[in-house]
Amino acid sequence: MADFLDELKRRFVRPARPMEDKDVGLVIERLGIMPGHRVFEAGVGSGFLTASLARVVYPDGEVVGVDVAEDRVRAVESNLEALGPVADVVELVVGDAAEVVRRYEPEVLVLDMPGAERVVEEAPGSVKRVAVYCPFVDSAVRAVEALEGRGFEVEWLELVERSWSYEVERGVRPRRFSSHTGFLVFGYG
Ligand SMILES: C[S@@+](CC[C@H](N)C(=O)[O-])C[C@H]1O[C@@H](n2cnc3c(N)ncnc32)[C@H](O)[C@@H]1O
Fold this sequence. Notes:
By secondary structure, the protein is α/β, with parallel strands linked by helices. The model has no long low-confidence stretch (mean pLDDT 95). It has seven helices and nine strands, in the order H-H-E-H-E-H-E-H-E-H-E-H-E-E-E-E. The strands form two sheets. It has a seven-stranded mixed sheet, with helices on both faces. Helix content is 32%, strand content 26%. The protein has one domain (5-188): Vaccinia Virus protein VP39 (Rossmann fold, 3-Layer(aba) Sandwich). The radius of gyration is 17 Å and the shape is globular. The protein has helices at 5-9, 21-30, 48-57, 70-80, 97-100, 116-122, 137-149, and strands at residues 38-42, 62-67, 90-94, 108-111, 129-134, 153-157, 162-167, 171-177, 183-188.
């Protein structure tokens, strides 16, 4: 039987804080990412989001994953080896995403990095949908302004996850209520 992606990710090293599953799932759905799409992702950090994007665009699409930190790119390269042939759709690049984004013609931009608004400003006209993950309110405001400046329709939200437990004779109650992780700002062209 094939491995499951969540099991493979548990073996990944984490040089940067990974995006949580709740946010990864909504990014993929809101952007409507399908097999065959070309996605530009920055920064790749630990490669958690990269792995999910690769699985969805496989086998004919492409994920260009950029990070300014070379050691993170190397860690992601090694993490993705666990994915076997799915990793072949990923091209990893070391550099400032705002400087390299124009080299590509992606349909989709997914950004989880400081200064993401600079990448939105520099993005080529091929980009139709954008997701920006922002830990802070001020970075979310900058993402909204940059997306509106490029003519995108904007949605800004925060996803909150609450786990519940059921114990016989003790009843049902929330087990974990995640504190703030980040905002998601979407742009639809
Ligand atoms: C929070 S991590 C991304 C985590 C990733 N989404 C994951 O799921 O593993 C943010 C990354 O952005 C990278 N970064 C910062 N500035 C950048 C830039 N100008 N261009 C590309 N990457 C950048 C950092 O090196 C860091 O690895």
